[in-house]
Amino acid sequence: MEKFNDYLPQTISGKNVLVTGGTTGIGRATALLLSSLGANVIVAGLQREHLLEALHDIKPVAAGTVHGVLADLATEGGIGKLFADTAASFGKLDILINNAALPYGTTGEGDYQEWQRVVSTNLLAYMACCAEAIKLMPGGGHIVNIGSMSADVREETGSVYVATKSGVQGFSESLRKSANKQGIKVTLIEPGAVDTDMQPESGPEKLKKVKAMEMLAADDIAMSVLYCLSQPKRCDIVELKIRPHLQLI
Questions:
Q1: How much is the pLDDT for 214?
Q2: I want to staple 201 with a disulfide (CB 3.0 to 4.6 A). Which of 11, 54, 158, 205 is the partner?
Q3: How far is CA 160 from the centre of its chain?
Q4: Using one digit for the tens of pLDDT, what is the confidence trace for 7-23?
C-alpha cells in the first residue's frame, strides 16, 4: 500500500484551486490549508475587508501563489468576472471548491428579492461556477460542492435555505454522471453545525459548543475536503456527511 504521506504532495502541490466564499469560515480554512500544502489558490469573496483579512492570514503560510478576487456570485456579471480573473491567473483550473452561501429562514420572512438573492447565491451560483470551471478543466479536475445537512434534515425554520441545499444535493448527484466522463470528479460534502458566521450564536457560545462536541470547527471541514481531494484517480468520494459527535440528528 502507498504511504499516506505520498498522497498529499502528488494531489495538492502545484494544483490550481478556486475557493468561492473563501474569505470566512469553511472557505477560508480550506484555502489556508490547501495553500499551505503548495496549491495555487484564488480566494473569492464578496466583501473587501474580509478578503484582505483572509489574504493576510493565508499568504504567510502559502507554499504556492495566492490571489484574491472580489465578486458578487449572485449575479451573472460577478461570476463572469471571477472566471475571467481565474483564466487570466491560471489558464487552467484543477479544483473548484463551491462554498459561497447565505443563511436564511422561511418564506414567511422577507420578500421575493431576498429569496431570489439567496437562491442565486446558494444554488444558481453553484451551477454556474461548475459550468465555468469545467471549461477550464480540459484534462480533468475535481469539483467539491459544500452542501448542508439541511438537505436531509429539512428543518422547519429554514425552508428557503433548505430548498437551496436540497438543490445542491440533487445537482451534484446529476452533474457527476456527466462530469466523470470528462475525467472530472464531483464530491458533495454535507456538514452539520459548524463554527462559522452562518451560525447565530456569539463567538464564545460557538466555541463552547465546539468544546462540548455539539459543533464542528471550520478546520474539520477543511480536512475533510483535503481527504476527498487526496484520493487516487480510481476512487471517488461521492458524498460525505459530517456531524458533530453530539449533534444527534
A1: 83
A2: 205
A3: 19
A4: 666 689 999 999 999 99
For residue 138, the model assigns a pLDDT of: 95
Residue with cell 466583501: 47
pLDDT of residue 11: 82
Cα-based angle 115, 214, 249 (whole degrees, multiple of 5)? 65
Residue 214 C-alpha from the chain's centroid: 22
Distances (CA, A) of 92 to 12, 16, 153: 15, 7, 37
Spans of the chain below 50 pLDDT = none
H/E segment holding residue 41: strand 40-45
Residue 199: what pLDDT?
A: 66
Under a CB-based contact definition with an 8 Å cutoff, are residues 151 and 165 in contact?
Answer: yes
- pLDDT in the model for residue 210: 85
Helix 159-179 × helix 125-135 angle, to 10°: 20
Query: What cell was used for 101?
Result: 452561501
Question: Residue 187 in contact with residue 236, Cβ under 8 Å?
Answer: yes
- pTM, 2 dp: 0.93
Residues 136/69, Cβ–Cβ less than 8 Å: no
Give CA separation, 106 vs 116, 157, 178, 211, in Å.
13, 6, 33, 30
**Apex CA 29: angle with CA 45 and CA 41, to 5°?**
60
Amino acid code (one letter) for 56: H
Do 71 and 46 contact (CB within 8 A), yes or no?
A: yes
Instruction: Name residue 225's amino acid.
Output: V
Phi, psi (rounded to 5 degrees) for 241: -105, 130
